[in-house]
């Protein structure tokens, strides 16, 4: 009897886990079948596994090429594609207004949760999911990013462009190949630091990622792009990661703290309260004044998070965009020639070869068309900008989406749309912006490089300033040649779609 009991318990101990797992699997399958059968959107096409689990989307995002996958999905399945059980990617011109338009009640989806720092009591502008607090916070800082505020920022962009030109001249003389994307990162990081904190990180000077800060921001992007898909894990994973050493982020944090303290030393609370604000004040002075005048409404945490968001959201995005424009120019010699002709003429007419100002650059139509087209062909963000369908549901592409469904448009998908940009949408052709003002205005409505609506990029003017200062200067002064023109451009989509192998020879422009 004891033997039999022993046999039975041995049998039970080996079989029961299998039965348990099998049982759970059956329950999971039945649960999913019921969900699928009851889903009013069950007829929307998409990859098989995306119907049942977010793992399909996670795997694709982790692959680092979702911008390409997303375009291919819409080619295969049409305007609406399911990419996760309750999440749909949309490729439709009218959908932009419905989902992102001012006055639409679609709020940011939970994917953005993984971008926030759980330690912050007040979410930053980018990650705030609450439309009311977001609107208040955005209003608080909007004037710091306005066109008039750019006056104080222009000399910062010019100073950094000057250093980059000097460095590239040295590379041209030594005939050493460089990774242009990396140097554009140094420019973008140093410029946004100078604009925000009144001090450069010093990447342009050393030619190095000091303190591994750029690498740390890359790891943060790797994290948020994937953990956003399973946002429920963010707080736990973030806690685990906070136990590990993270030199780069600490470096950035202490750099920021030092500069803020320096700003406070230079201008005490009483001085800031009394001083009239001037458009020429630097960004940090403006932030510290806001805190001095209304410490409850704008606490020190908001001073730090605004600075941190500028650096996080405004560095890689700008370098990716600069690299996109220059890469396309390298691949299109006739366009480059035409652009140089316009720039040379502008320089000749004003009788000085000094760097073109932002205002001057804005008056050059071909330059503006090149920038616009570069930003269309390589928008910095490469995942759908997810939003939640509001109460009462919504009609998108003629189909009813129940409330709480998640939907999103990927800039790469929209910019490849042939109905909007024409049959040659995949080509880099700046002329499309100059064919007629009506056509340009129409296309402009569907450009998502800087997002759209109430959550549109607050730093757009700053990045356009940086781009408009640097591109003409580099195009006028240097020839860039790809080390291996036949090697396809490698990119990695970690929310920002970063170029990886932009290895080039730099030489001084012939005949310059
Ligand atoms: C070429 C450069 C840039 C590109 C392509 C870009 C792109 C974008 C996009 C697409 C969004 C919307 C994201 C979404 O809805 O999911 C966004 C938001 C944002 N960007 Fe930029 N950005 C750039 C530069 C900058 C700069 C220079 C700054 C700051 C100085 C900045 C700060 C922000 C912030 C704070 C938000 C959140 C705004 C809000 O939700 O109210 N960006 N950006």
TrEMBL record:
Task: Give a GO molecular function annotation for the protein.
Answer: iron ion binding
Question: Which of UniProt's keywords are assigned here?
Answer: Heme, Iron, Membrane, Metal-binding, Monooxygenase, Oxidoreductase, Transmembrane, Transmembrane helix
Where, by residue number, does heme bind?
457
Gene3D superfamilies in UniProt: Cytochrome P450
Q: Which InterPro entries match?
A: Cyt_P450, Cyt_P450_CS, Cyt_P450_E_grp-I, Cyt_P450_sf, Cytochrome_P450_monoxygenase
Task: Please give one Pfam family short name.
Answer: p450
Needed cofactors, names only, are: heme
Q: Which SUPFAM superfamilies match?
A: Cytochrome P450 (SSF48264)
Question: Is the Transmembrane helix keyword given for this protein?
Answer: yes
What are the transmembrane regions?
A: 7-31
Query: Acetylation: present as a keyword of the record?
Result: no
**Family per UniProt?**
Belongs to the cytochrome P450 family.
- What is this protein called in UniProt? Cytochrome P450 oxidoreductase
Q: Which organism is it from?
A: Cladophialophora psammophila CBS 110553
